Amino acid sequence: MSHQRDAFGGVTRRALLAAGIFGFGFSGLIDVLVLHLVLQWHHLVSGLYPQTTMAGLRTNMLADGLFSITMVVIMGIGGGLLWRAERRAASPLPVRPIAGSAVVGLGTFDLYDVLVDHVLLGLHQPLSRGGRYNPHWIVVSLLIIGAGLYVYRTGSSEGRETPSENV
Q1: Which residues are CB-contacts of 55 (< 8 A; sequence separation ≥ 6)?
Q2: CA within 20 to 30 Å of 80's CA: 31, 50, 89, 128, which one?
Q3: Which is more confident, 158 or 111?
Q4: Which residues lie below 8 Å from residue 12, measured CB to CB, with a gap of 6+?
Q5: HEC string of the chain?
Q6: How much is the average pLDDT of 80-103?
Q7: pLDDT of 2
Q8: What gap in Å lies between CA 113 and CA 70, rounded to an integer?
Q9: pTM of the model
Q10: pLDDT (tens digit per residue) in 122-135
Q11: Is the model's pLDDT at 5 over the cut of 80?
Q12: For residue 123, how far is the Cα from the chain centroid?
């Protein structure tokens, strides 16, 4: 077990996956709350049901609400798995690899959203601009994933020093 912890920057693969799941759900929840509900740039299924009619807007709001609940459940699963991994660990899990994994999960949701929801399924487009922002959002998503990997890698040796190395 300790070899598995050392191989992943002092954390288990399960803890890293849990943090990534939490980040994925968190990003989806922020997306729906800010872009769909507060700014109203688009809704989850506005590419299928026009938001210009009352029936279409109701359908979109229902889809946004169900999506919000789903993202809260995904965050809860990730948080629960991470809590469980922390409870099983002999020492506290290092923060940077966990935070980096969560940021990778966040960027992964954004990349999934643009590639699957926008491009493949056509569920919605930001600002109803016919996909004009999709290439930009792909780049932003990849930058977020890269930032998460950077945070993970720069913290991967955290907690691995021996007392003699501190002298």
Answers
A1: 49
A2: 31
A3: 111
A4: 1, 4, 5, 85, 89
A5: CHHHHHHCCCCCHHHHHHHHHHHHHHHHHHHHHHHHHHCCCCCCCCCCCCCCCHHHHHHHHHHHHHHHHHHHHHHHHHHHHHHHHHHHCCCCCCHHHHHHHHHHHHHHHHHHHHHHHHHHCCCCCHHHCCCCCHHHHHHHHHHHHHHHHHHHHHCCCCCCCCHHHHC
A6: 92
A7: 45
A8: 14
A9: 0.85
A10: 999 887 667 788 89
A11: no
A12: 19
In b/e form, how buried is each residue of 69-103, taking b as 16+ CB within 10 angstroms? eebeebbeebbebbeebeeebeeebbebbbbbbbb
Tell whether the model's pLDDT for residue 86 goes beyond 50: yes
Q: C-alpha angle 156/77/88, rounded to 5°?
A: 55
Structure tokens at 80: 């629960």
